[in-house]
Amino acid sequence: MSMPIEPENVLSLADSMAAPARAVPVVDYEIDRLKALDAAAWQDLFDRHFKKMYAFAYARTGDPQAAEDIASEVFAAATKGIKTYKPTGAPLAAWLYRIARNITADHLDARRRKPTVSADELQIEVEVEGWDGLVDLKGDLRAAMTQLTKEQQEVIALRFINDCSLAETAASMHKSVDAIKVLQHRALGALRRAMTPKERRA
Hints:
Layout: H1 13-18, H2 26-35, H3 39-61, H4 64-81, H5 92-111, E1 123-126, E2 133-136, H6 140-145, H7 150-161, H8 166-173, H9 177-195
Antiparallel strand pairs: 1-2
């Protein structure tokens, strides 16, 4: 037996011709699903970004368990904050990175010590005058990272560990692309100086 169709739920031919349906942008559609707490949408977001949040937190803390906890907390915080999220044109990942920055900072403050980097199998390709090539993130570099400022560590983690673009990094850190370029240059310069033996420094 067919279900009755309510007249108020049916557009007339004139109405449908006067107001053609508009395609919903993919990003807006995804955000709408996330705001509706659609389980499949959140699982997809988790699958795409959990490892990135973990890598960021791991680079800052040097602690695998803490990094996993922080990455999980990012998505817990995101589910609470999605209702008030307003698209700015930046990738949704930039919003997640901002959450990760705050949670990681709180974690590090609680530990009352400088952040460290521990990523034994990771390599960074850098371009700094007099210091080109692949740098292995172990040993001296781990120690050198602890000498950087918080923002310098973050820009290194976002740009070279998580492979974020300049625009994504800028959105994540609430800075302009030009400011990120300057910060990145100074961070890499500071790493080079920290890793250069004192007798070789000019």
